[in-house]
Amino acid sequence: MEREGEDDEIVCLDESFFINDNYQLTTFTFGSHVLELYCLQSASTDFDLTGQLVWPGAVLLNDYLSKNAETLQGSSVIELGSGVGITGMLCSRFCREVVLTDHNEEILKKNIELQESSQNSLCCAELKAEKLEWGNSDQLNSILQRHSTEFDLSSVPLLFDTVEKILSVGRENKCKFILAYVSRAKVMDTLVISEAIRHGLQINEVTGTRAVVQNLEGVVFEITLA
């Protein structure tokens, strides 16, 4: 029982309490492509940790791209929600330029340095990391000004706000956004499609991409300006 007049104890936590940098060098294989990068093996739902491991959506997207590399051959790519950069690293094998973006760009820079220092690196593209929080217009405008090339890649409303702006900037280059979606809740399944349409985008399921990844159903969408 709290004594009368006794104040509640206030505990202040340093920001390092929410950061886990216990990264492990991990190997992933997608078709004939073998990738090595630093990542966590597990994470909480804290925003600083969710992007530091490889999620099922990234596995689904990399499986698709490894089988359809010709669709991005020689292109310039901006990846949204790069996490540890596993999809961008794969794209660097057959693209001209790859810009990786996420809230935590430090792990991206760490993995870019790893690729650049590797004697067995197969990267053809220039890899760059940029900080981008979905919905932050200042960060997005800055990225688009520095990387004003044709872009092909990829809370749901904030995601599509960002996608719409990138596709509009690259309209003349017929840009497209490739989204690997893994279902976690039925309400999200409907929201993804409805938000794309609300933003004036055309969203089409890529035939033959439905798959089960880590016991979750996933599919790849191709999104363009309507």
From TrEMBL:
GO cellular component: nucleus
Keyword rRNA-binding: no
Single Gene Ontology BP annotation: methylation
SUPFAM superfamilies: S-adenosyl-L-methionine-dependent methyltransferases (SSF53335)
Gene Ontology molecular function, alphabetical: protein methyltransferase activity
Keywords, alphabetical: Methyltransferase, Transferase
Matches recorded under InterPro entries: Methyltransf_16, METTL22, SAM-dependent_MTases_sf
PANTHER family: METHYLTRANSFERASE FAMILY PROTEIN, METHYLTRANSFERASE-RELATED
Name listed for the protein in its UniProt record: N-lysine methyltransferase METTL21A
Organism annotation: Olea europaea subsp. europaea
